[in-house]
Amino acid sequence: SRGKIFFISETGTSKVLAQRLHELCASNDIAFDLVDPRDYEPEDLPKENLVLFIASTWDGGKPPQNGEFLVNWLSESAEDFRVGSLLLSECKFAVFGVGSRAYGESYNAVAKELSSRMVGLGGVEMIPVGEGDVDDGELDRAFQDWCAGVIRFLKVGSAHEKDGVAQNVAAESDHEYIDSTDDEEEDNSGDIVDLEDIAGKAPSRRNGLVKVPKGDGKKEMVTPVIRASLTKQGYKIIGSHSGVKICRWTKSQLRGRGGCYKHSFYGIESHRCMETTPSLACANKCVFCWRHHTNPVGKSWQWKMDDPKEIVKGALDLHTKMIKQMKGVPGVTPEKLQEGLTPRHCALSLVGEPIMYPEINALVDELHGRRISTFLVTNAQFPEKILMMKPITQLYVSVDAATKESLKAIDRPLFADFWERFIDSLKALDEKQQRTVYRLTLVKGWNTEELDAYFNLFSIGKPDFIEIKGVTYCGSSATSKLTMENVPWHADVKSFSEALSLKSNGEYEVACEHAHSCCVLLGRTEKFKVNGKWFTWIDYEKFHDLVASGEPFTSTDYMAPTPSWAVYGAEEGGFDPEQLRYKKERHHHPKPQAVLA
Question: Is 585 within a domain?
Fold first, then answer.
């Protein structure tokens, strides 16, 4: 019978890899069926002669939903003495695991269990379990090497099975081998394998079987593969762990076509804003991650560390180079270009978790010393870091869900105590004297029904503002199941915001909106609505003077009045009337049409 390729997949990564393997086998004239185990009867496994598993590990070492029944059936059968150890003796198999080392002991647990259970039931393992880490930039290479091993076995097996060669090849998997992916080896001496000890044959690096000496130095966060991936996405990498990228709204305001929501809500000049991060690593793997998880993940700083002054200097140098490239672009005036070359704001929210960087306070000092304001976003997993932060112009905490269950599903955090860390982060926010913000990202079908639960979080952190934004769809990804169906309309965001305001009984009111960004701002009424007028904007010069003074100060000391066009309900919808709005006609050759907003 035809072989079977099973994909056990949650976000689609394993399914995509299984499809690639299926195509590779077909190109080598090896017949396989691609099978979703959800549609397969495990009782038929004893009838199979050849099966390949591409298996993800999910949720604390458990299999994704589509593979639960199959994995459980194998586990129960292997533990049942009535089944016996020869049930699958006619079946040759191989397993490739997809996981993340950042999750510790559960790394590729499902793949390892599949291998163990299949062997326990008499299955013949063709090659050792292949392991791919979705975060180290080497997943594709590891999978290609494993596939090459499978194809080699299958070709040798089909050509020489009668002579018993296939059995000899399979028997190699019973020999001891050294797996370079195992971080818990008993022998930590770091000795190199003696090649003569392995039957006169060098262990293949393709299958990860070469033991490499462990160095004493810390590794760089951005590996060559990750660097290439981020560079392709438009990032400029600074040193070994930082990045900068020019924002589309920076380009837009340089051209006089409108600023981002921060311009409408807080009065930043978008064309003078630098978007950067001192840590490309993160402690979450959010379903709506706009980088599709090409950045590293980790629970603590474990990499080489660059000097904060060098990071700021490098970021400014690379940012201004990108700004200079806008010279000659239609709409960019010499005056705007010159302003853009001297940034006044820094959004420490590009990607990753900037607060993980051990020298984050020194980096903030460096920016403030240049009178550059700071907007720092943290993912609410490092409460102790929030408490030790020096004054920030505006400090954000991402509140991606309002219950423990939905936060786990959406953020996919690395920490087992993620919920306690989340709540403690909100409590830490309440300790800060400068401007604080909850950032809510609404994902239709995931968290838009949690109105009451969100409201219950308000009293914990008592933020000055609450930004409510619809998730942005960034295209399909093997690591995210989001589609356009999960993107709320601006009307949905407005309705959600108004309902939250009503629940607060006037403590928070809807202050501003930016329709283009599908974003609405709730403000704390008693602090930022004075005599019926909103003061959501920031007096940036006053802020820098306050920081330089070294004296204590609060968020109301540097607030500024919100212009009428940015206030919620204004016909401009948060679009600055001094800018030009360009609307494209819907035909094959769109011609921009400039109209005053």
Answer: no
Measured from the Cβ of residue 334, the count of other Cβ atoms closer than 10 Å reads 8
Rg (CA), the chain: 28
CATH number at residue 407: 3.20.20.70
Contact 99, 135 (CB under 8 A): no
- The residue behind tokens 């396989």 is 32
Q: Which long-range contacts (CB under 8 A, 24 or more apart) does 525-534 make?
A: 527/464, 527/555, 527/556, 528/464, 528/465, 528/556, 528/559, 533/561, 533/562, 534/561, 534/562, 534/567
With contact defined as beta carbons under 8 Å apart, do 139 and 132 qualify? yes
- Domain end, chosen from 141, 157, 173, is at 157
Query: In CATH, what number is assigned to the domain containing residue 29?
Result: 3.40.50.360
Q: Both 395 and 543 in a single domain? A: yes
pLDDT in tens, 434-473: 999 999 887 654 344 578 888 999 999 999 999 998 744 3
Distance, CA of 439 to CA of 351 (rounded, Å): 15
Same domain, 408 and 550: yes
Residue with the two structure tokens 């971080």: 183
Domain carrying residue 379: 239-566
- Within a domain: 481: yes
Instruction: Indicate the number of domains in the chain.
Output: 2
Q: Which amino acid, one-letter code, is at 507?
A: E
Rounded distance between C-alpha atoms, residue 559 and residue 572, angstroms? 23
With beta carbons less than 8 A apart as the criterion, state whether 35 and 28 touch: no
Last residue of a domain, one of 157, 187, 203: 157
pLDDT by residue (tens digit) across 390-415? 999 999 998 888 888 888 877 777 77
Residues near 128 by beta carbon (within 8 Å), at least 6 away in sequence: 173, 177, 179, 207, 209
Q: Which among 324, 235, 226, 325 has a CA at the least distance from the CA of 275?
A: 235
Task: Read off the pTM.
Answer: 0.65
Residue 184 makes CB contacts below 8 A (sequence gap 6+) with none
